[in-house]
Design brief:
Radius of gyration: 18 Å
Order of helices and strands: HHEHEHEHEHEHEEEEEHEE
Shape: globular
Helix content: 25-40%
Distance between the termini: 26 Å
Number of strands: 12
Number of helices: 8
Amino acid sequence: MPDGKLTPAGSVAAFGDLVERLPPEARLLDCACGTGQLAVGLAALGLDVMATDASAAMVRRTHQLAEQHGVPLRTLRVSWDELSDRLDGSPPFDVVFCVGNSLAHAEGASARFDALTAMSRLLSRDGRLVLTSRTWELVRARGSRLDVGHRLVRRQGRDAVVVYNWQIEQRWDEEHHLEIAVAQVALDGSVLTCSERLSCWPFRQEELVSQLQAVGLEVESNTFDPDAENYTVVAVKGDVPAAV
């Protein structure tokens, strides 16, 4: 995570223009909330925010962060395929966020389509879906590799080296893997290492746009650059001309 997004305020700043245009009564959903930085930052602005995640640990951390900052925030452990059923009957949302490269964890094109369908159903008319993604075209072009950090990363007073082990498959529709290892350097010089292996199903940018249109959303803005590491797509529900 970039240093600028380590705080709730920093996470919100990344979507500053969109957030600044929201009315005070806007209802927002962060449907892949992770550790809760964005959801808590939005709630701190006085907005009506719900945070969901498929991971109980992430929902718990989001709830704890909200308590630390003293902001009201509703949390719920729910996967994308359960969103529509679990939130059926609740008022629609003005904005749904699915950020932090989360969508690639949907298990292939069919599951990704189902996730986008659920998000679209929860939006009010003219509501917006905000997505961020890695540029998977770049990731795949670089192939399987080991990326070792060239500098120490400091988090909460601790220094560590971060290593990314990319396992890139032959075909786009195959399950890819990313193992992230963190080698923490203790004050006595010892090194403590922990790692996590993640599954992901990459997608092309044009495939994402096509699926958004198929679930009734039109792209309002798209920062995709084939040479940039990440991009943001904002799609609106309603008859709004696309601007890519």
